[in-house]
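Here is one chain, start to finish.
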Amino acid sequence: MKKNIALVAGGYSGEYVISVKSAAVIENHIDSNLYNVYKIIIAKKSWPHNGPDGPAIFVEESWTHRGADGQEIAVDKNDFSLTIGGKKVTFDAVFIGIHGTPGEDGRLQGYFEMLGIPFTSCGMVTSALTFNKGFCNKVVAALNVVNVSKSVHIFRDQPYDTKTILQELKLPVFVKPAEGGSSIGMSKVNTADELPAAIDKAFKEDVQILIEEFVKGREITCGLYRSEGKFTVLPLTEIISSKEFFDYEAKYTPGMSKEVTPAEVPEEIAEPIRKTAQELYNRLNCQGIVRMDFIWEEAGNRLFFLEVNTMPGQSENSIVPQMVRAAGKTLQEFYGTLIEDCLKRF
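Its structure:
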């Protein structure tokens, strides 16, 4: 008998569009002979208050599935079900495809954990921790398995001083929202005069930000997952940006970056990256497909941790689908493994 799978996409962040593109690819490659897929879009509607330039006011949240007749059907959040044609549809598992909040920061994970519904990603605690770059850096540094760049974590409602920050950190630095993806709101700061504007830009995206020392090296990312107790480590990817760093434009504008899969790196670099990714996956209690980003500092021959991405993009040109194809696997096989693994875990 076919299993019912809810494919959840959308979200509340600037990554909404990327999430919808990811969901389209996932939906097209889930085996329809084994699964009935119901795509559910989570969205937030708001409008400016006190004029067109005023703050956005939350007015409505929607969790909806578009039926075969084009009608939008609201999700019953009491048990995460749909009623279609007078019949109640419940789900055997959820494939979470939301980048950013609420699908990557632990909120949906906690909801599904309370309902006892299997889902494909990391659990609530791991998702929440890894989503916050500042707190995640502190935990990873304490594990002593990889270098972590020196950083300062500041909050919008707490006082901070740029001079003090630059006494603690060496320029250049990256300024980024602590909770966010796709490099939205991120800046590279080369001089002290550039820091205030970069902080303001990041605070427009988040209430807390991370200011982190720049590490010069090669950016290499590792995708991996565990099924039936065994790791599958996908071929590494090296990211080579035509810009100063891999920002939103470089990520999503064709020709702005080069992603080399498999990465053309010697084995003495590749193997420590694979081993470190597996160690962090275990120590952080990850589940499902995770992409871990690193910088290999060639001058010091050292590996630095960048971040853990527990909801990596799945659009046709995204890095993980490139890795899957380079490993000789199909996306249908890959997504089927993730679904079956989450069913067994729960």
